[in-house]
Every structure is written in C-alpha cells, then in structure tokens.
C-alpha cells in the first residue's frame, strides 16, 4: 500500500521498456502460482567425499508456468524477493522439503539431510524461526536433518538481527550453511560472528580466471582453516573429474554438481539413495 502513490501511473508510462513489461507479466502470473500448485521441488544429491555415498540433498524450486513452461529460478526468485512473495513461497518450500525428506527417510531407514535455500527477505521476517519450528513439528522431520542455506548478502543485511536469529535457529537444532562462499566480500574471520556449520564453496572458488583449476595447496589451506573453525566444507558446481580429485585431496567434506548428479524429482533420487545404501 505504501507504494501505491509511486506506482499509480506506471501502466501508462510510454517509456516502459520491454524488459519491464516482461517482468511485470511474470509478477502477475507469480501471484496465483502457489495456490495453483505450479511450484515443485527438485533435489540435487550431496556426496560424502570420503565414502562417495550420497548423504544429503539440496531442494531447488521449479516453476511450471502454464503457458511458458519451466521458468528458471534466476528469472523469478528476485521478483518474489522484491514483492514479498518469497515469504509464502519460502514457507511452502520449507514445508514441502521437510515433508518429502521425512517420507524418504522412512522409506530408506536412514538419515538424510535436506538443505533449503533461504532468502534475505525470509530472514528479515520476524516469524521465520516459528515457521521453521512449525515445519519440523508438522512433518516430524528431526531438526538435525534440516540445513538452511543463507547467502553472504543476507547475513550482512542487518548483522545484529541476523546473528540473534541464527542463534535462535541453532537452539531449534537445525544446521546453518553459507551459500555461494567466495563470490561475496566476506572472509572466514568475518563469518565467525555467526554460528555457521557449513561453508558451501561456489563453483568459481576452485577455478581461476583463465578457467584452469587452482592449486590444491590453496584449497587445502582453506579447508584446514574452515575445519579449525568447526565448519564443514561443501563444494558445489563440480563438473569435472579434475576438480573432484582436487577437492578430495584437499580433504573437502562433501560435493555436489553435474558430474555427480543433476537436480531431479524426488522419485528419481530415491532410486540413487537406495542403490548406494551401505550394506
Ligand atoms: P544456488 O543455491 O547456488 O543453487 C545451485 C544452482 O547451481 C542450482 O541452480 C543448480 O541446479 C545449479 N547447479 C548444480 N550443479 C551444477 C554444476 O555442476 N554446474 C553448474 N553450472 N550449475 C550447477 P538452480 O536450481 O537454477 O537455482 C538457481 C538459484 O535459485 C539457486 O542458486 C538459489 O539461489 C535460487 N533458488 C533455488 N531454489 C530456491 C528456493 O527454494 N528458495 C530460494 N530462496 N532460492 C532458491
Ligand atoms: Ca543453495
Ligand atoms: Ca550456491
Ligand atoms: Ca548461486
């Protein structure tokens, strides 16, 4: 409502660009998308680099638009953040991921950790910790089977508020991960002020500007430092055998990427977890 005055004439602005029109069209079709059940979650397995067994998975949202087909998250997550739609959509993601993971664990008879992406707009919402508690209580998923992935930019938005919220989430018992580490400006020393359990290394972290893989000594030193700070290291976007070997040599804990598996519907993933079950 506070934007009404500013936006009142926007439909009549002759200089409105094609990009703005496309964005507005997406925004209009996003509003009813949740009620129309157009979202689904795909899951990408996370592999333990010591045993090479799948130990967890990241939930990634997919939007099946009735006319456009599948719209990638890069095209609509930002709009949900600007409009506040991320709050109800994020709540659905959390509930859905917890429910499915609880069912998968019952099928497999073993523990699986699910990672859920959380936007700055969700962290800024004072009811967020209660939403997490509720999702766990309603689905029966044990708290240590849920990990929340936060980006560096979400962490620095309001440091005091974020730090106290993260401490509360730790009391609930969930794990906290920093997503896309290495793309922002923050350092490990800086992150020590937050109760972070996991660092997710961005794909670019192990690649140099010329596209070559960086030295294993560098990655090893970084992983050792993270371990000294009690953080586990997960590499994402692993596409080549060369990078995989480097990460194993550097004693990186886990990895995910197209080399290992693409994101997929849970029914497909269930088969992979079954094949690799120990024993
Ligand atoms: P992200 O959290 O960094 O997720 C990793 C992205 O990398 C995913 O793209 C995944 O499909 C892709 N990926 C996985 N393996 C590889 C690989 O080996 N190489 C390359 N090049 N890419 C790989 P996706 O699914 O398109 O999601 C894009 C972004 O959208 C995510 O980046 C995340 O920031 C956001 N997102 C996705 N789902 C959600 C959600 O439920 N909530 C929120 N708030 N954001 C989400
Ligand atoms: Ca992520
Ligand atoms: Ca990431
Ligand atoms: Ca990313």
Automatic annotation (TrEMBL):
Q: Which residues cross the membrane?
A: none
Q: Which UniProt keywords apply?
A: Coiled coil
Record flagged with keyword Coiled coil? yes
- Which residues does the UniProt record annotate as the domain EAL? 23-277
- On the tree of life, the source organism's domain of life is Bacteria
Would I find Coiled coil among this entry's keywords?
A: yes
This chain belongs to the protein called: EAL domain-containing protein
Species:
Massilia agri
Q: What are the leading ranks of the lineage?
A: Bacteria, Pseudomonadati, Pseudomonadota, Betaproteobacteria, Burkholderiales
Shown stretch of the complete protein: 651 to 929 of 939
């Amino acid at each position: 409502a506070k934007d009404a005055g500013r936006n009142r004439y926007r439909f009549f602005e002759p200089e409105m660009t094609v990009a703005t029109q496309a964005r507005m069209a997406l925004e209009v079709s996003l509003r009813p998308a949740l009620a129309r059940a157009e979202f689904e979650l795909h899951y990408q397995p996370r592999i333990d680099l010591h045993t090479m067994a799948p130990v967890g998975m990241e939930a990634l949202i997919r939007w099946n638009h009735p006319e456009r087909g599948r719209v990638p998250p890069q095209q609509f997550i930002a709009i949900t953040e600007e409009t506040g739609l991320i709050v109800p959509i994020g709540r659905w993601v959390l509930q859905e991921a917890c429910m499915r993971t609880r069912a998968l664990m019952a099928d497999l008879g073993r523990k699986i950790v699910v990672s859920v992406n959380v936007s700055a707009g969700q962290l800024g919402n004072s009811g967020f910790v209660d939403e997490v508690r509720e999702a766990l209580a309603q689905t029966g998923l044990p708290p240590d089977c849920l990990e929340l992935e936060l980006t560096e930019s979400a962490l620095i938005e309001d440091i005091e508020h974020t730090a106290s919220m993260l401490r509360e989430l730790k009391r609930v018992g969930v794990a906290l991960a920093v997503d896309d580490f290495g793309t922002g400006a923050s350092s490990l020393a800086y992150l020590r002020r937050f109760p972070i359990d996991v660092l997710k290394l961005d794909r670019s972290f192990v690649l140099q500007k010329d596209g070559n893989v960086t030295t294993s000594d560098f990655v090893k030193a970084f992983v050792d430092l993270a371990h000294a700070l009690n953080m586990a290291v997960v590499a994402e976007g692993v596409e080549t055998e060369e990078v995989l070997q480097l990460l194993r040599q550097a004693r990186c804990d886990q990895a995910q990427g197209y080399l290992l598996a693409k994101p997929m519907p849970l029914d497909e993933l269930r088969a992979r977890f079954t094949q690799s079950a120990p024993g």
